[in-house]
Design a protein that fits this description.
With 162 residues, the protein is α/β, with parallel strands linked by helices. It contains four helices and four strands; from the N terminus they run αββαβααβ. 31% of the residues lie in helices and 17% in strands.
Length: 162
Amino acid sequence: MTSDTNIELPKRKRNKDDGELDITPMIDVTFLLLAFFVVVSKMDPQAAVELPKASYGESVPDKNCVTLIVVVDKDDETKISIFKGRSMSDDSRIPDGDEETQEEEIGNFVENELAAHPTKQAILIKAAGRVKTGMVEMVKRGVGQSELGKSRKIYVGIEEEQ
């Protein structure tokens, strides 16, 4: 008797749909739902949105600070005006000149203000949104020239024009 060990078992026929999933209808439904919600939803750009409060800043009372205001000239955007105090009048304007002269003027103003009002605990620099960072740094260097200003905190507030 000869034993034939090479007997092959018949292979199972695989159905073409086994293991494959056609997701075309699911994609169609997704796009239909997307189109539906785009058409039905209302977009109101004027709706008031409650913005969250800044978590990294703190409120600084203006009256407890020596204030300096830095703005860009409306006619010439390369020209910067620096004002002493909370007023933007011509008599409180620091005269134009080289940066060293302006820094010295800022240092003298801060020194005089802190000597006259020892309750003021900080220096507040208010800048318009278009003011370059270098100009704010120049004002900070001017504040640093004041001996009394070195021991106070410096706050910088940037206001974006509407």
